[in-house]
Amino acid sequence: MNVFKKIFTKNSRPLEGGIFFEAIHKILGFKPNNIEFYQKAFTHRSSNKLDLKGNPINYERLEFLGDAMLSAVIAGHLFNEVPSGDEGYLTKMRSKIVSREHLNELGRDLNLIQLVDSKVPFQHFGENIHGNIFEALVGAIFLDKGYPYCEKFIYKRVIVPYVDIAKLEGKVISYKSLVIEWCQKEKKPFHFDVFDDNGNDGQRYFGVKLSIDNKIIAKARATSKKKAEEIASKRAFFAFQEKMDKKL
Amino acid sequence: MNVFKKIFTKNSRPLEGGIFFEAIHKILGFKPNNIEFYQKAFTHRSSNKLDLKGNPINYERLEFLGDAMLSAVIAGHLFNEVPSGDEGYLTKMRSKIVSREHLNELGRDLNLIQLVDSKVPFQHFGENIHGNIFEALVGAIFLDKGYPYCEKFIYKRVIVPYVDIAKLEGKVISYKSLVIEWCQKEKKPFHFDVFDDNGNDGQRYFGVKLSIDNKIIAKARATSKKKAEEIASKRAFFAFQEKMDKKL
């Protein structure tokens, strides 16, 4: 019976085993409890949905909630991470992390737009849809699982992959240039190769690998070649950090 | 042994049973775990304290953290409380609640300044010290007990006594005028009496009682007579709400 049930609901949006549920599960890294919050987070106002009381169902209110939770989690992280930073420093760093451009990048890299329920073609959305949906998703997590899961998600999807204090402070402009500088000093050959390009104009992805001394040191995937090269360089940088710290 | 220990530490700042600990306990409504966070929240920069790493010990960083937690808790409250409010409405209501004036009022009403450790006389502080210390206190609660206790504290000290959506929306300008209007319609005698005035100019408190038909209906204490009258009127209004709803 359960097997039949699973087959029948496989393509439906809400239920466990359904495409939407599994996509959300994968993005979150943990199982949602109430999928309805997430459905709302991915519903664009053009869908014109209303609840039983006549209130519109779309992501806009969740965006407000998610923005507040994101700011709180990032504040907590910076507070602990930079004990020497004063109030002005912490405020400045946070606004860099939660800038519109940065949130759009996060949403784009997670390809959240593919899950949006809308009556408007995706091409008509502005750039901000990526960041807005990302914030709404954080809001949905708060309602569904509470603050600790917001923290968990933001650590996994924002802080670990993107928040680099040295870079935000402007001390490191580009990891790619650090790596190149080091290779040139050490007289080691290096090259970046694109190993994957899905060629899809709407949501193009690039895979880049960085080789030094003809050994593959790091790989990364991102929405532009430049970004993938930077992420691969950052990975290589941290892998080699001890070595570089001594020699740079 | 424990009895002796308690006596010996009774007047010291940090320990359970000490004046500072018990004052914090009373303000919070729950027991602090690590009193050091709260000591920091009440330390003014003029005290020039440094930690072992040379970082200044004062409330300013905690203020940043508390501000973020306060915004998040109020966002969660408004989201649930006003399901028909759109993003713009929620943003506007939140900024009314966490306005500088409102936070100063909260801090002043809790008389937080009496606990501040400073080398500058209190008279030299600006008005904002009240709100700043209030925010720092929220930050300390977050570090000490986590997000759910921030919620608990903010419900008890901000939302329940101060957050009145109808009034914030401008639908009710003054509860005092509502009460007066009702008494006049009903031809009921009413009067406000000051029953307490501590007469201390630095931190003056007024107690006001509202009598209708020669019965005491509500009492309130606040830092001005006008404010105490308004709070007493609000209490009377909600006590009589059913009655008034029918007759107004």
TrEMBL record, chains A, B:
<feature type="domain" description="RNase III">
    <location>
        <begin position="21"/>
        <end position="146"/>
    </location>
</feature>
<keyword id="KW-0694">RNA-binding</keyword>
<protein>
    <recommendedName>
        <fullName>Ribonuclease 3</fullName>
        <ecNumber>3.1.26.3</ecNumber>
    </recommendedName>
</protein>
<keyword id="KW-0699">rRNA-binding</keyword>
<keyword id="KW-0507">mRNA processing</keyword>
<dbReference type="InterPro" id="IPR036389">
    <property type="entry name" value="RNase_III_sf"/>
</dbReference>
<keyword id="KW-0819">tRNA processing</keyword>
<keyword id="KW-0963">Cytoplasm</keyword>
<dbReference type="InterPro" id="IPR011907">
    <property type="entry name" value="RNase_III"/>
</dbReference>
<keyword id="KW-0460">Magnesium</keyword>
<dbReference type="InterPro" id="IPR014720">
    <property type="entry name" value="dsRBD_dom"/>
</dbReference>
<feature type="binding site">
    <location>
        <position position="63"/>
    </location>
    <ligand>
        <name>Mg(2+)</name>
    </ligand>
</feature>
<feature type="binding site">
    <location>
        <position position="135"/>
    </location>
    <ligand>
        <name>Mg(2+)</name>
    </ligand>
</feature>
<feature type="active site">
    <location>
        <position position="135"/>
    </location>
</feature>
<comment type="similarity">
    <text>Belongs to the ribonuclease III family.</text>
</comment>
<comment type="function">
    <text>Digests double-stranded RNA. Involved in the processing of primary rRNA transcript to yield the immediate precursors to the large and small rRNAs (23S and 16S). Processes some mRNAs, and tRNAs when they are encoded in the rRNA operon. Processes pre-crRNA and tracrRNA of type II CRISPR loci if present in the organism.</text>
</comment>
<dbReference type="Pfam" id="PF00035">
    <property type="entry name" value="dsrm"/>
</dbReference>
<keyword id="KW-0479">Metal-binding</keyword>
<dbReference type="GO" id="GO:0004525">
    <property type="term" value="F:ribonuclease III activity"/>
</dbReference>
<keyword id="KW-0255">Endonuclease</keyword>
<comment type="subunit">
    <text>Homodimer.</text>
</comment>
<keyword id="KW-0698">rRNA processing</keyword>
<keyword id="KW-0540">Nuclease</keyword>
<feature type="domain" description="DRBM">
    <location>
        <begin position="174"/>
        <end position="242"/>
    </location>
</feature>
<feature type="active site">
    <location>
        <position position="67"/>
    </location>
</feature>
<feature type="binding site">
    <location>
        <position position="132"/>
    </location>
    <ligand>
        <name>Mg(2+)</name>
    </ligand>
</feature>
<dbReference type="Pfam" id="PF14622">
    <property type="entry name" value="Ribonucleas_3_3"/>
</dbReference>
<keyword id="KW-0378">Hydrolase</keyword>
<dbReference type="InterPro" id="IPR000999">
    <property type="entry name" value="RNase_III_dom"/>
</dbReference>
